[in-house]
């Protein structure tokens, strides 16, 4: 459905959705203005279908005289120096819940037209204070009511019809409200015919340049009555249509949407997720800051230590217990307990900051400043809890099975067998020494292998074979330790990647999705 086909209810619902999405994210005045519009729409729709028309203008424009002429009574005091406060006057035609409406508008001075024109039944006409009043409260009252009325009649005079203040501050900003705006050039009876035509032509040109080509311009002279029938007819046409309030709210909704659209990217809705390289860079930087290299190194050293202990010479295995397990010193395995990993250094923190900044810049590329500011706040909130989440992720990562490989168990058993062989040889030799001391060594025959006494062969062979086996197993143990370290790195990196997705990329993607929803609404 194209935007111009939307009903007012649909427009307001869409604006309400945009405000809800922007709530807590965008710190821009347009959101507050739209919120006020939604409140105004809800209140105005509940106050009936009377048409509120306001006469606005500068001091001396004849606005109050025109108001009295339309009202048929001296309701508002005219004059260059009006002794009124910043309060509007009201004239009411017919009974259409005008009192509740005027209470909402906060207009206390009310006049009920006693002999109303049937064509104006339902009209509530306001005479606003002068927009150029020396009193600030008068100007503020004009600004307030200009935002609330259904139809705005701007009364200009030949001397100040091109006044920059009225065009810049009031008329030009209402370019989207041409259908609910009417411009009156009053006091044309002070001009000759040629001057009046020139004045009207120049005023038409100014309005067209300001985007108000659809706004009618009526010449009037309130004191002589010139142009009053035409003005009454125009007001009667708008009152009779009974849709001036809807037209004004529709124009306001369009204006609010246009103002909010300033905070939308031209290519809203396009997926801007980080590429694979950016995600890998972020994960790598977070892994370094979380101490993953230290854990991987500890896993490798621990696996090497345990492997050497299992495949080394049994006589010297006890020496390995003199050194603490590198992995055990980190207190990993329980997410509820803070690990003993060292704090990230300056280099790691700088790398993490650079990666977070790149992720934020990727997500915010092409976005207006207000949404980039929101991404920056989101990123700052993430950084506050990121260190603890990373530590818990590393601490709770399953680093792989901590069991002794079967081949190391077999080698360990063989080492004990070789040690037992050497021990048998040593005890045999000791027994032979004892028999020699008792001069019984000739009684017991001494087996030999290739001329080498068997006890000596058992002792030396067991020791040398055990030492050689330990040396041969060292590279295999190192390779297994490296393999386990790679497994640990892969699992740790995966967990850190999950943290990167949950704590960094997901919030940025959510903010980007909210931007797209905001712009769609």
The sequence of SSEs as H and E is: HHEHEHEEHEHEHEHHHHHHHEEH
Sheet with most strands: strand arrangement: 3-2-4-1-5-6-7
Note poorly predicted spans.
80-85
How is the biggest beta sheet arranged?
7 strands, mixed
Based on helices, strands and strand pairing, what is the structural class?
alpha/beta
User: Helix count, per DSSP?
Assistant: 15
* Measured distance between first and last alpha carbons: 13 Å
Beta-strand content estimate: 5-15%
- Tell me the radius of gyration: 45 Å
What's the average pLDDT? 83
- Shape verdict: rod-shaped
Report the strand count.
9
Summarize the amount of helix as a percent range.
55-70%
Pfam families: MMR_HSR1
Domain G: 53-164
InterPro entries: GTP-bd, GTPase_Era-like, P-loop_NTPase
Keywords: Membrane, Transmembrane, Transmembrane helix
What features would you highlight for this structure?
521 residues, alpha/beta, seven-stranded mixed beta sheet, two-stranded antiparallel ribbon, 57% helix
Secondary structure: elements and pairs:
Blueprint: H1 8-22, H2 29-45, E1 51-57, H3 63-71, E2 89-92, H4 98-105, E3 109-112, E4 123-127, H5 136-146, E5 151-156, H6 164-171, E6 181-185, H7 193-209, E7 217-219, H8 228-241, H9 244-261, H10 276-290, H11 292-311, H12 346-364, H13 369-395, H14 406-437, E8 448-449, E9 452-453, H15 454-520
Parallel strand pairs: 1-4, 1-5, 2-3, 5-6, 6-7
Antiparallel strand pairs: 2-4, 8-9
Helix pairs in contact: 1-2, 1-9, 1-15, 2-9, 10-12, 10-13, 10-15, 11-15, 12-13, 12-15, 13-15, 14-15
């Amino acid at each position: 459905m194209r935007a111009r086909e939307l009903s007012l209810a649909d427009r307001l619902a869409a604006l309400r959705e945009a405000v809800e999405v922007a709530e807590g994210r965008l710190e821009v005045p347009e959101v507050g203005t739209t919120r006020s519009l939604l409140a105004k729409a809800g209140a105005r729709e509940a106050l009936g279908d009377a048409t509120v028309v306001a006469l606005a203008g500068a001091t001396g424009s004849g606005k109050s005289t025109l108001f009295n002429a339309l009202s048929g009574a001296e309701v508002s005091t005219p004059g260059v120096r009006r002794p009124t406060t910043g309060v509007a006057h009201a004239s009411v035609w017919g009974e259409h819940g005008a009192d509740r409406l005027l209470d909402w508008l906060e207009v206390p001075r009310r006049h009920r037209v006693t002999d109303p024109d049937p064509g104006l039944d339902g009209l509530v006409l306001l005479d606003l204070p002068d927009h150029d009043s020396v009193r600030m409260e008068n100007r503020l009252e004009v600004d307030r009511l200009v935002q609330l009325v259904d139809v705005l009649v701007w009364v200009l005079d030949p001397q100040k019809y091109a006044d920059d203040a009225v065009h810049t501050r009031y008329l030009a900003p209402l370019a989207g409200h041409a259908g609910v705006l009417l411009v009156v050039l009053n006091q044309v009876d002070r001009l000759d015919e040629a001057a009046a035509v020139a004045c009207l032509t120049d005023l038409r040109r100014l309005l067209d340049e300001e985007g108000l080509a659809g706004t009618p311009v009526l010449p009037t002279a309130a004191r002589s009555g010139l142009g009053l029938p035409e003005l009454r007819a125009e007001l009667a046409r708008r009152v009779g249509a009974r849709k001036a309030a809807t037209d004004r709210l529709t124009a306001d909704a369009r204006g609010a949407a246009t103002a909010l659209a300033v905070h939308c990217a031209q290519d809203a809705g396009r997926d801007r997720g980080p590429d694979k390289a950016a995600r890998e860079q972020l994960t790598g930087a977070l892994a370094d800051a979380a101490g993953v290299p230290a854990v991987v190194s500890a896993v490798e050293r621990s696996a090497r230590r345990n492997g050497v202990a299992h495949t080394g010479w049994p006589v010297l295995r006890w020496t390995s217990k003199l050194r603490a397990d590198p992995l055990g010193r980190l207190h990993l395995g329980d997410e509820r307990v803070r690990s003993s990993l060292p704090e990230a250094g300056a280099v790691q923190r700088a790398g993490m900051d650079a990666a977070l900044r790149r992720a934020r810049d990727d997500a915010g590329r092409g976005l207006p400043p207000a949404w980039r500011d929101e991404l920056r706040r989101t990123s700052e909130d993430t950084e506050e809890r990121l260190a603890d989440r990373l530590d818990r992720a590393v601490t709770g990562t399953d680093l792989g099975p901590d069991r002794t490989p079967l081949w190391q168990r077999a080698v360990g058993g063989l080492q004990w067998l070789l040690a037992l062989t050497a021990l048998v040889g040593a005890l045999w030799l000791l027994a032979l020494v004892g028999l020699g001391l008792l001069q019984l060594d000739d009684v017991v025959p001494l087996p030999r292998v290739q001329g080498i006494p068997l006890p000596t062969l058992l002792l030396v062979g067991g020791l040398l074979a055990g030492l050689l086996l330990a040396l041969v197993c060292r590279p295999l143990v190192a390779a297994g330790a490296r393999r386990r370290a790679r497994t640990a790195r892969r699992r740790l990196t995966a967990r850190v990647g999950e943290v990167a997705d949950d704590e960094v990329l997901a919030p940025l993607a959510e903010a980007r999705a909210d931007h797209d929803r905001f712009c769609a609404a």
